[in-house]
Amino acid sequence: MSGRVELSPQYIAQLIREEQDVPVQVVAVDTLPTSAKNPVNKATFDTFLQGTVYKASTLTQLQEQTDALVMRLQQANIVAAAVPIIETSRSSVSGAGENPLPVSLTLRYQPKSHFTAKTGTNITNSGQGDAYLTFQKRGLLGLDETVTLDHRRDTGTNAGSNVSVLFPYVVPGNAYLSGKIDMFDAWKFLGVHDRGAAANLHTCYTPKSGKWNHSVTLDCIERVFHNSAYALPIKDTSTLVSEQLLVQEGKSLSSSLRWCASRDARDSTIAPATGHMVKVDTQISAAPETATPKFIKASCESNWVRSWLHNDFLTLSATGRAGYIHNLDPTRSYIHFADKFQSGGPNDVRSFAPMGLGPRSLGQPLGGDAMVAWGLSLFSRVPVGPMLNSGFRLHAFLNGGRLVNHNGMGLGDLARTLAQEHSTSVGLGLVLRHPMARFELNFAVPVTTHDGDMVRKGFQFGLGFEFL
C-alpha cells in the first residue's frame, strides 16, 4: 500500500517512545501562510530549514528540530504562530530496515504584520515600571528584518529613544546566528546622557540543546555628565558637591568590545524550579580618538536551583556574582562612575537602597571596581486551599555582598578584602511568579552594614526578571 499518510501527534509520540532511533529523511517542506499578506521570504525559510529540520536523521531529532524551527521563527519576529504537520509516503515504519523513512513537512504559519504601533507600560529590572511608545516595520530592506523605533520613560528619571534593526540570520544556512544594530539617545537618572551606536552578533540556542550562547557587541558612545542633574535614590538636602564627581563632568568619547557567554540549563529563566545557569561577561573599553585601551571589565554569575517534595513544594536557589575592573592606564585616565559596578536594591542585595552599597562621597554613590554579591533563597508553595497551586510562593532569604575600589592592590589582598565584612540582610516575603516577570514583597532587615550604606529596613517591593 502506498500514498501519503499523515502522522497524528499521538502516533508520532508513540513512535518516539517505541522506536526513537528510526532513521528519517526530510524530502520536502511546504510553507503555507494563513494570509497572502506579509509572507516570509524563501531565502529566510531556506536558512531556517537548513539549520533545523533538514539536519534531523532520526525520529526524535525530527521532533526536536521541528520545535526548534517554530521557536526560532517566533524568536526572530517573523511569524506570530506556526503549526507543523509531518507526513510520510509509507503507511508503516515496520520492516523499513536500514533505509530512512521519507517524510515531508507542511508548515502552516501566521506571518507577522509588516507594521505595528503600540504604547503602554512595561517592566524593568530596576524595580520600576516604564511607559513606552514603539513602532515596528518588518521587511523594510527585504530581508525579513525588524526595524523598531522605541521611546520610553520610566517612573524614575530615565528616558531614551532607540532605533534598532534586528536581522533574523546573518549567515545563510545558519539559523542560530542573528545580528542587531542599535542607535540610541538615552538619559540616565545618574545625570548621564549617552548617545551612540552598537552592532551585535548573538547565537540563539535553546536551553535543551545544552550549548553555550555567545554575544559579541561593538559600540561607540558619546557621554555627557552634569553633576547638577545627578538624582539620588534618597532625598539629600546637602548643597555640597563631590569633587570625585566634579572631575568627571563634561563630554567624553568611548568605544568598547564586549563578549558574553552563557549556558542556561534551568527549566525557566524567571521562576526556575531546577537546573543551573552560568554567565561570563568581558568588556574592553578604549578611547576612539587615540585607539588607546582604557580598561577591562569582567564579571561572572552562577545560579543553582533545586526542588523537593510533590509538585516542587520546596525550592532552594543559590546565586553568586563577582566582578573586577582593571584600569589599563591609571596615570592618564580614570574609570567613569557610570562604567563601574553598583550594588544594592530590591532585586540585588535586599534591605539596601538601589546603589546602596560601596564607596560614596557626600552621600552620592561612586560605584566600585571590584565586587561580590550572593543570595540564598528558599521558596515554598502557600499551603492554603487554592493558593497551593497558584503562582504565589512564600520566600525566605539571606543576602550579602561587598563593593570596593581596589586602587591597584594585589589580587590576593583583594580576594581577602572581598571575602570579609560583607553587608548582609535577611528577610521573609511573598513572591508572585508570573510568566512575564517576578514580583516580590519582602520584609527585610540588615544584619551587618558599613558606614555610608544606604539601608532600607522594612518592606521592600521588587519587580523584574533577574534577582539575586
UniProtKB/TrEMBL annotation:
Q: Which Gene3D superfamilies match?
A: membrane protein fhac: a member of the omp85/tpsb transporter family
Q: How does it sit in the membrane?
A: Multi-pass membrane protein
User: GO CC annotation: what is one?
Assistant: mitochondrial outer membrane
Lyase is among the record's keywords: no
Presence of keyword Membrane: yes
Q: Which residues form the Bacterial surface antigen (D15) domain?
A: 239-467
The Gene Ontology biological process terms listed for this entry are: protein insertion into mitochondrial outer membrane
InterPro entries in the record: Bac_surfAg_D15, D15-like
The protein's predominant localisation is mitochondrion
Name listed for the protein in its UniProt record: SAM complex subunit
Show the taxonomic lineage: Eukaryota, Fungi, Dikarya, Ascomycota, Saccharomycotina
